[in-house]
Amino acid sequence: MKPGQSKEPIAGFGQWHSTPQVNQRGSYSYALDLIRESVVFLYTDGGGVRMTPHGTGFLIDVPSKTRPGTKYTFLITARHLVDADWTGGPQVADRLLMRMNRKGPLVLEIGEPATVFYPLKEQAWFHPEADSIDIAFTMIPKENLVALGANVQPLGSDALASQVEADSMRVGDETVSAGLLSGVSGNLANYPIFKWGNVSSFHGEPIPTKMPGGKILNLFEALVSASLVQGNSGSPIFVLPNERHPHRMFLAGVQSMSYIGNDVAGMAPIRSLIDSLHKLKDQPDIDLGPPDQPPVLSP
Known about the structure:
This protein has 299 residues and is mainly β. The chain contains five helices and 17 strands. It has helices at 29-38, 84-87, 142-148, 163-168, 270-278, and strands at 5-9, 16-18, 39-45, 51-63, 71-77, 96-101, 115-119, 136-140, 155-156, 174-179, 193-202, 207-210, 216-219, 222-225, 236-239, 250-259, 264-269. Strands 3, 4, 5, 6, 7, 8 and 9 form a seven-stranded mixed sheet that branches. The protein has a six-stranded antiparallel β-barrel with strand order 10-11-14-17-16-15. The chain is globular, with a radius of gyration of 18 Å. It starts with a strand and ends in a 21-residue tail after the last helix. The relative contact order is 0.20. Mean pLDDT is 82; it is low at 1-26 and 291-299.
């Protein structure tokens, strides 16, 4: 155990953490490591060895209702990165790859990549029923990640905001996210970039948003001021502890489109993901608790 750590697991992360202190980022350095380990980069395959950074995703584990100890792993990202029919943009789903660090030293020797790629072209993608939510997800067999030697650690499903927590969010709440930043994402390994910011607005109406293909979609989402840019799309966005929830940081949303030049980005609500997971007909065994109130764990 590291100096200064308490023995209580921070809710949603399942490992030891530094003693929580409101609005002091340093006390959450260990939790940030856990967020980093859940983040993956999305690339498109241009043929041969040419890989182009496309966006960000993250992994969560959801337990089974009927088989104790069994967990299902889901890749979460922004829908506009994977659904060309929705955006009106070019098809990329058949060229999409998930890049992860592999186990072992990040760089074994100069010039040797320490990453592994997982092809996503055969994946079945799901999304919320409402076309106004920029979230997509797919299930990844955990044994495939193990076979690849991927060094990833999915977040626990209890990291997701409860309904009470989602309703308690206010303008000004501090946020943190981690994702791909084009140009500094790393050639030999993944280096997720963390960004801090604040919730800047809760719109009571859909926001007309221009998609990569030029199509205008009305998106229902909050706005976050954190200088979030292209490549960060699909990143997890957490709300840091405050006076309303002093002992827990929770996953509040998924980064949607960035308003380049305005230091503002959309945040699709994570509760829409929870509702969609509950409605998965092909996987009725997942256990997220009651649809209207998933488990709230205290540290």
